Every structure is written in C-alpha cells, then in structure tokens.
Amino acid sequence: MFSKRSIRSQFLIQLIVATAALIFIFSSFLYFFIKQSIYNEKHDELLQFAQHVIAYESLIESRQENVDSLLGLSMELVQKKKGYGGITMFEYVRDKRTYLSLLYPFDKEEGSYIKATKDITATTRLLKGVLRSIIIIDAIAFFVIILYAIGLSKMLLLPIMTLSQRLSNMNEHLMRPIKIDELPEEFEPLGLTLNRLIGRIQNFVKYQKELFIGAAHELKTPLAVIKLKNQVTMIKKRSPEEYIEAISITNKTIDDMNNIVANILNIGRQEGAQLQPPTREDVILLLKQKANDFQLLAESEGKILKIDFQPESFIATIQGTLLNQILQNFLQNALKFTPKDKQVTLRSRAIEDGLLIEVIDEGCGIDDTVDLFAPFKRLGNKSGVGLGLFLAKSAADAMGAELSIENRHDGHDGTVASLKLNTILHCPLP
Q: Could you tell me which of 206, 223, 217, 212 has the C-alpha nearest to residue 264?
C-alpha cells in the first residue's frame, strides 16, 4: 500500500509510534497512580491501628465508623535487632493470598515492634482487573489511532495528491493554471509558484515555436534571394563587373544569414548561462561599468548618455552574464532609436521590495499592440534580427526579475525599458 519513499507511510509510522508511546506512558502513570493511592490508604490504615495499640486503645472503639476495615487484620508483637529502623511496610504472598505488613516501633530499647498485617488479596485482584481493563482500552485506542492516522494522512495529503494528478495530466499542449481558491491556505504559496512555473513553460513553448517558425522563415528568404540571383546570373554571359556585383549581393545576403544564425546561437549560450551558479554582486557597480562601455559609443553617434544611480550600492545574488545581456540590449535599442543630439538616460532607484533599473530614450516609441518579446519582432525600419528583447525577457525570467517596456508618459516621445530586481531573486542556488 505504501512504499518506503512514501510521505504518507512515514507520517503514519511517526504518528502511530508517537501516539502509542503517549498512550503507554499515560496508562502507566494512571495505573501506578491508582496503585500507589490504594497502597497509601492501606499504609495509613495500618499505621493508625498500630498507633491505637500503642495508646492502649481498643481497635473496635477506635474504628467504630468502619468496622469492615478490621476484617483480615492481625496484630502481634515481634522482636527485631536493636537499631533495626523506623516504620517499615512490606508485601508478601502466602498460600496464594497477598498480605501487607507494617512494623511500628513499640519499644526501641528492647527492639520490640508491633506488626500489623492486613489481607489485601481482594485489593490486588482489583488492581489486576484495573490493569487488564487499561490494557484492553489501550489496545482498542491503538486500533482507533491507526484508523485515525490513516484517515488523517489521507486528508492531509489529498491536496498534494490532487496537485500531483493535475500536473501529471498536463502536457505542452494542455496546460491550465491551478485554481488557488480551491486549495487550503497552507498550499496557496505552492499553487502560486506552480502557476508562475506553468506560465513560464507556456511562454517558453510559445516562443520556442515562434522561434523555429521565424528562423525557418528568416533563413528561407535569403536562400531564395541567393538562388534567384544565381539563376539570373547564369542566364547569359556578363561582364566581370556585373559578376562581381552579383557575388557581392550574394555575400551580403550570406552575411545576413550568418547574423541570424549567430543570434540563434546566442539563445543556446544564454540557456547555458542560466545554469551558471549565481554570485553576490554589487548591481550599481555593474551598471557603472556598463555605462562606461556605452558612453563612448553614444558620443561617437552624437548622442548623450545620462546616468543617475541610486542608492550607492545594492548587493544581490544574481547571474552577472544574464544581467549584462539585459542591460546591453536596453542600451543598444535606446541608442539605435534615439535621434542625434538627443538623450538616453540610464538610472536606478531603490523601491519597496528591490531595485528598479530604467533606460529611457527619446525615440519614436513602441506599438503597444505588438508582442515585443516574441522572436523576430522588429521595430521601425532599423536593422536587426529581432531576437534581442526575446533574449532579454528569457534572462529576466531566469533571474526571477520583472522586465517591461512602455511608452513614456511625461509628454515626450520615447520608451522606458524597466528591469525590477527583487530583494529575493529566484536564481537557482547550487
């Protein structure tokens, strides 16, 4: 029914063992408490008899309120060695009957003691009956506990089993978010995490399909151009200059294909970078290094790169390669679409639960109706393959960061590319 690796079997064993130990300890304390209470009562009874004898009182007169207590009682005077001790009580069995005796000092100098003996056979039988009853009750309670543990373990593991069943029935073509409101409160964080994971898988599958389709389309077009140019060139003889021109066009088309293949290879390299162990880095220091790299590029293009970094330091456990790819894509796009003599701003500021990095340009803005993060999506008439934002989004998802691009809302044309680094990132720690 349960394997050694089953959580339910481990829970059952621990619950049954703990409950059985608790029942045994409680029952033992209960039995010994009952036994000790009865023996204390018998001890006090014998002690009182002995004290009455020493006071030369009549036992019957001293115990008129409870004459039945005198049944099975015998009193005698015995001699012990001098210095034998004080009051002593002991139990013994004779002729299958149990007796309880009390030695009480009568004359210590002569070594005489009063020995009060009481037949407690009925009491011992009663205690044995109590013990048998406790054992029977414990056995029944243990059986009930087993049934209760089985039911409780099934009830507690039902949400996990439900989640496991739903996840096992999913595939890349049939993925549905888990309904959080149907889960117990304790499983809501797990459900939210699984829904985020499902969303990432859905986006990954979607973008991978678009990537393959887009790559095939992007490569098919230049190949068709090359073939057509070659066919036209082969129709009739041409001058060397015309051949050189045709070959130059073919080489340019091949360069475009190489650029597409190189960008596709970057996707593979990025997936490898996602597996690199994260390290503790000062994000502000990385921003300053990246700003220095693009400062000269901006000046060479006649553009202005403004920086504004706050706070002075922000330590995070991240994969530096992925952050570098995101920042490089943001700055490249910002400089590409910003006209000459215009400004690009790279800034950072602390927010409630992390750090916000923004790259603001003065370009033409974006079309909000287009999925900018899909592969091979190009903006405007600028050159490029259209994989930059796709790679940036994948890198941000791998780090557990939030990436967004929107038009400016301050009355100026341009876009704002934002990266929100959470205080607790989701980097896969080794």
A: 212
Cα–Cα distance between 75 and 64 in angstroms, integer? 18
The dotted CATH code for 198-272 is 1.10.287
In sequence order, what DSSP letters do the residues of 144-173 get, joined into one string? HHHHHHHHHHHHHHHHHHHHHHHHHT-BTT
Q: Is the peptide bond before 277 cis (omega within 30 degrees of 0)?
A: no
Q: Where in the chain is the domain with CATH 3.30.565.10?
A: 276-422
d(CA 57, CA 49): 9
The DSSP result for 300-335, as a single string, is HTT-EEEEEE-SS--EEEE-HHHHHHHHHHHHHHHH
**Stretch(es) of the chain classified as CATH 1.10.287:** 198-272
**Residues of the chain with pLDDT > 70: what percent?**
80
Q: Can you tell me the distance from the alpha carbon of 386 to that of 377, in angstroms, rounded to the nearest whole number?
A: 5
| Residue 117 DSSP one-character state | E
Mind listing the pLDDT tens digit for each residue in 150-179? 888 788 777 777 777 777 777 666 677 777
How far CA 306 is from CA of 299, 335, 403, 412, in Å, comes to: 11, 12, 21, 16
User: pTM (2 decimals)?
Assistant: 0.49
Specify the CATH number of the domain 276-422.
3.30.565.10
List all residues 6 or more positions away from 156 whose beta carbon is below 8 Å from its beta carbon.
11
Quote the CA–CA distance of 101 and 50 in Å, as a whole number: 11
Comparing CA positions, the residue from 379, 408, 377, 374 lying closest to residue 394 is 374
Evaluate whether 303 touches 346 at the Cβ level (below 8 Å): no
C-beta separation of 401 from 425 below 8 A: yes
Residues 361, 367, 370, CA angle at the centre, nearest 5°? Answer: 125
Q: Compute the distance between CA of residue 386 and CA of residue 397 in angstroms, rounded to an integer.
A: 19
Distances in Å between the Cα of 239 and the Cα atoms of 242, 244, 247 are: 5, 9, 12
- DSSP-derived pairing of the beta strands 97-107 and 88-94: antiparallel
Question: Please, where are the H alpha helices in 346-424?
Answer: 388-399
CA dist 424 and 163 (Å) reads 26
Going by pLDDT thresholds of 50, 70 and 90, the confidence category of residue 41 is: confident
pLDDT at residue 305 in the model: 92
* Pair type for strands 315-318 and 304-309: unpaired
Q: Which distant-in-sequence residues (6+ apart) come within 8 Å of 284 by Cβ?
A: 309, 311, 312, 313, 314, 348
Secondary structure string (H, E, C) spanning 62-112: HCHHHHHHHCCEEEEEEECCCCCCCCEEEEEEECCEEEEEEEEEEECCCCE
* Amino acid residing at 223: L
